[in-house]
Amino acid sequence: MNTRELFAHLFGAEGCSIITEYIIRKCFNGMNFIDIRNWLEQNGYDRHTTIELKSTEILIMTPDGIMMQMRTADKGKLGAFGGVLNDGEDPRDGAVRELKEETGLDVQLLDLQYVGYNQHEHVYTNGDKALFHTYRYVLRLKEVPFMILNDEANGVEFVTAVVPNIIENQQEFVGDALSGKFEE
What we know:
About 25% of the residues lie in helices and about 30% in strands. By secondary structure, the chain is α/β, with parallel strands linked by helices. It folds into two domains: about 5-45, no CATH class; about 55-115 and about 140-180, Nucleoside Triphosphate Pyrophosphohydrolase (Alpha-Beta Complex). Strands 1, 2, 3, 4, 5, 6 and 7 form a seven-stranded mixed β-sheet that branches. A hairpin with a 6-residue loop joins strand 3 (about 65-70) and strand 4 (about 80). The longest helix has 13 residues, at about 90-105. The radius of gyration is 18 Å and the shape is elongated. The relative contact order is 0.19.
């Protein structure tokens, strides 16, 4: 049975309402979410079907405030650094990898403080939907680092208060960090 037949057998001709981690492993052999969306579209399914993803979010705390990226995919809204975990990747390793990819920073596992878990839905501007299971971390730096941003960001801003242009599901996270909730 090929992937299309298996998908149709498991979920019927209409597809399903959410593509879980189990479905990704069983039907898509660990493909990344962009490849899954393309496969859905090419095979006549709704490419905007919600995909369940594990991810990381990292707040970089500096003497100038919390450094946040102006996210290209979210029309310049401010967001934490981080992203989707690779299949089977440990969240802390994913956080280190994402920081390296997005900023060029070489961070050690011990530099990250795990501060909590969050589950939230996100709809991208193109209509794609995701249900994120997010591991949240704080990275404290004594000075503002030199960074080389990748194409996911248009720049960075430092925040010292929760402002409206922070991605909605991260506003409480930023507020908690600014209030000292995560102090060691």
